[in-house]
Every structure is written in structure tokens, then in C-alpha cells.
């Protein structure tokens, strides 16, 4: 069996969600640990006046890619930004880009998703279900595809007490739901959402369960693997331990299990799962391989312990470039949580806004003063030259 770097050698990879948290880490790890990968195509949309290429350039300029930059200075040449909008028909790909992907892609990593818990059902279905469906349809046309790796969540079936590594029947037929949403207005969708999601806590977990079923049904002829991470947290080791100290309070029970998994562990598992499915694509059973990437079942860690050890760790190992001295408060009482949210999050954010506005205003005023000073200097220089010329004329010069 070939090693993981050997398997990815010469491969063309398609990655969705590359600008997101997990997608960026996966991109960096793949390029750094598998240096002979041929190219990584990333689907990126226009955003805030930036082109996909500009967004890619900005993304790879961050500290996350410093180690890769030192080890492989030319890594940028392997990243190819492809203009795409996952919420649009056929992913809004140009015919040229579509044909290119169909001809060359060997491995697909589908990381893109909306992870907002309060997302409307219509928007969550559009990105988590319909976009997945359209990507599967595109993957079926890929001539050299070896593996389709779908990133799901361990909470897709959070209404079950025990979750095995299988795909469970969906809460509703995804195709019927998609068809219904086409004629329902937003008010009706909002009204029926609680009834539809049932005992699931939000539209995120509901639509991720639907997406798994879509992957199973629509991609029956593909070599597919699914990874289900729990709560993806800051990196443990690779490319460096990370944290910013921004989140300072959250509502949780101290006795509840905090199923946190470092992002580098999730990424390593994802790359290894794709490798295993790829090298065994002709011999393994045809059923979809599912990997639950969690900690709660074998090494439970509670939120009360998270608070204690995080605060202890921050004192012993201060973070680089932290915005404030990190401190974590975990409260189960909703009133206490709201108090700490106001004191630790909202008020500091408002103060930062005021400081930034004042700094910006001061900078603008300084720039105006500088420009005015330049105008005065130029005026004096012109007056001086005019006086010299007048003096020379008076002397017959």
C-alpha cells in the first residue's frame, strides 16, 4: 500500500470551502505534507468587491501559511482559484472551468457549508443540500475521479442516543422538501420550520442529515467517504498551536460533555480517509465509508474542565497577537451569561469601534493637514520663484 504523500503525488484536487476555517487548514496541510500534489482547484465566489483570485491571495498571505511558505516558496502556483457560487445553478461555473474540472480532477473534498445555527431553512437547504447535490452531479461527470470526500457533522443525528458509522434514513425526503421550498413564501417556511426539524435543535443539523442522504442516493456510483467531526476547535499542533482569545463567555452546563476536536486532527483524519478510500477503491465494499471524528465517547471532557484548563493554559502559555488577555467564563444561568456577554463581548467591541473611528478620523485630519501644508509649501515656492523673476527683470536680467 502506498503512503499518503505517495498517493497524492500527481493528483488534481478540488476543494470547496477553502476560505473557511477547516478548508484553509486542509489546504495548507495537503500542500505541505504532500508536496508532489499536482494542483488544488478551489471554488471561490466574488465577495466584498474582491475577485476569487484576490481572495485567494489574501487568504494565503496569513500566518497559517508561513511554515508552508518557508518550506515550499512556490506553493502558490499549485493553487488555482475557480470562480463559483455554490448557491447558483450548476455552481455558477463557466463552461470552460466545468470542462477543465471534469477532465482533470482526481479527488474532491467538499468542505463548504453554512454552519450558522440560526440560518433560515431555505438558505440552509440551498447551501448544505442543493449545493451538495449539484457538486455530486458534477463529480459523476469527472473522468478520473477516485474519491469524493464529504465533510458532515457528528451532530447530523444528535437526536439519537448512539450514532454508528452509517447513514440513517432522512427526516424527510430531500427532493420533496426542495420542491416544496420552491413555491413556499418566506413566512410559510418560517412557520413550518419548527415542525419540520422536530427534535433537532436547528436547521444546520437538520440539513446536514439531508445532505448525507443526498450524497448516498445521488452518488451511488462514486467512491464516497464521509467524515463527521464534532466541535472543530483551534489547532493542537499543526501548523502551530493557535488561538486568539476573542471568545470569553458562553452558555453551557459545566457537567456537559465538550466534544471538542482540534482542527488539525480533523484535517489529518480527512486526508487519511480519502487516501484509504482511494487506494482501496477497487477492493473495498461498495458501501460509503463513514468516520465519526469525535472525543466524547472515548475521552469525555466537560465544559467545567474546559474553563479551568483553558484559563490555566493561557496563564502559563500567553498567546501571540491576542487581542486581550484570554479569560473564559462558562455559565449555565442565562442571565449571568447575558451579563458576561455584555461585559466581555459587546462593550469591548463598542469601545474598539469608537477607537477605530477616532483613529480613522484623526488619520483623515492628519492627511488633510499634510495636504494643506504641501499646498502652502508649493505656494511659497511659487511666490519665491515669482519674486526672483521679478527681481531679475528689474535688474535687466
Automatic annotation (TrEMBL):
Its EC number is 1.2.1.84. GO terms for molecular function: alcohol-forming long-chain fatty acyl-CoA reductase activity; alcohol-forming very long-chain fatty acyl-CoA reductase activity. Keywords: Lipid biosynthesis, Lipid metabolism, Membrane, NADP, Oxidoreductase, Peroxisome, Transmembrane, Transmembrane helix. Pfam families: NAD_binding_4. Signal peptide: none annotated. Belongs to the fatty acyl-CoA reductase family. Catalyzes the reduction of fatty acyl-CoA to fatty alcohols. Catalyzes the reduction of saturated and unsaturated C16 or C18 fatty acyl-CoA to fatty alcohols. It plays an essential role in the production of ether lipids/plasmalogens which synthesis requires fatty alcohols. In parallel, it is also required for wax monoesters production since fatty alcohols also constitute a substrate for their synthesis. This is Fatty acyl-CoA reductase. It comes from Chelonia mydas (Green sea-turtle).
Amino acid at each position: 500500500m502506498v503512503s499518503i504523500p505517495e498517493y497524492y503525488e500527481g493528483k488534481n484536487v478540488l476543494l470547496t470551502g477553502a476560505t473557511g476555517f477547516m478548508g484553509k487548514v486542509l489546504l495548507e496541510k495537503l500542500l505541505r505534507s504532500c508536496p508532489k500534489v499536482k494542483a488544488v482547484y478551489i471554488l471561490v465566489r466574488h465577495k466584498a468587491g474582491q475577485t476569487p483570485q484576490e481572495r485567494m491571495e489574501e487568504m494565503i498571505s496569513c500566518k497559517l501559511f508561513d511554515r508552508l511558505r518557508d518550506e515550499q516558496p512556490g506553493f502558490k502556483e499549485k493553487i488555482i482559484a475557480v470562480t463559483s457560487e455554490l448557491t447558483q445553478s450548476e455552481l455558477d461555473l463557466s463552461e470552460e472551468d466545468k470542462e477543465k474540472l471534469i477532465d482533470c480532477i482526481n479527488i474532491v473534498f467538499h468542505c463548504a457549508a453554512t454552519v450558522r445555527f440560526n440560518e433560515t431553512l431555505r438558505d440552509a437547504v440551498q447551501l448544505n443540500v442543493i449545493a451538495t447535490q449539484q457538486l455530486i452531479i458534477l463529480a459523476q461527470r469527472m473522468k478520473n475521479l477516485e474519491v469524493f470526500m464529504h465533510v458532515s457533522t457528528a451532530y447530523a443525528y444528535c437526536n439519537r442516543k448512539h450514532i454508528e458509522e452509517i447513514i440513517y434514513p432522512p427526516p424527510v425526503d430531500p427532493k420533496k422538501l426542495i420542491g416544496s421550498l420552491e413555491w413556499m413564501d418566506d413566512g410559510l417556511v418560517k412557520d413550518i420550520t419548527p415542525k419540520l426539524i422536530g427534535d433537532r435543535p436547528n436547521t444546520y443539523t437538520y440539513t446536514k442529515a439531508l445532505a448525507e442522504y443526498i450524497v448516498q442516493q445521488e452518488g451511488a456510483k462514486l467512491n464516497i467517504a464521509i467524515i463527521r467531526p464534532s466541535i472543530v476547535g483551534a489547532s493542537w499542533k499543526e501548523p502551530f498551536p493557535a488561538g486568539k482569545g476573542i471568545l470569553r463567555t458562553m452558555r453551557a452546563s459545566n457537567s456537559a460533555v465538550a466534544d471538542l476536536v482540534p482542527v488539525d486532527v480533523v484535517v489529518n483524519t480527512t486526508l487519511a480517509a480519502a487516501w484509504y478510500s482511494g487506494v482501496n477503491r477497487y477492493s473495498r465494499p461498495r458501501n460509503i465509508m463513514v468516520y465519526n471524528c469525535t472525543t466524547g465517547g472515548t475521552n469525555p471532557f466537560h465544559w467545567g474542565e474546559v474553563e479551568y484548563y483553558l484559563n490555566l493554559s493561557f496563564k502559563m502559555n500567553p498567546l501571540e497577537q491576542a487581542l486581550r488577555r484570554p479569560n473564559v467564563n462558562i455559565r449555565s444561568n442565562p442571565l449571568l451569561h447575558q451579563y458576561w456577554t455584555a461585559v466581555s463581548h459587546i462593550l469591548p467591541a463598542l469601545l474598539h469601534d469608537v477607537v477605530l473611528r477616532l483613529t480613522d478620523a484623526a488619520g483623515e485630519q492628519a492627511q488633510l493637514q499634510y495636504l494643506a501644508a504641501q499646498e502652502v509649501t508649493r505656494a511659497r515656492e511659487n511666490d519665491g520663484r515669482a519674486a526672483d523673476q521679478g527681481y531679475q527683470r528689474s535688474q535687466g536680467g
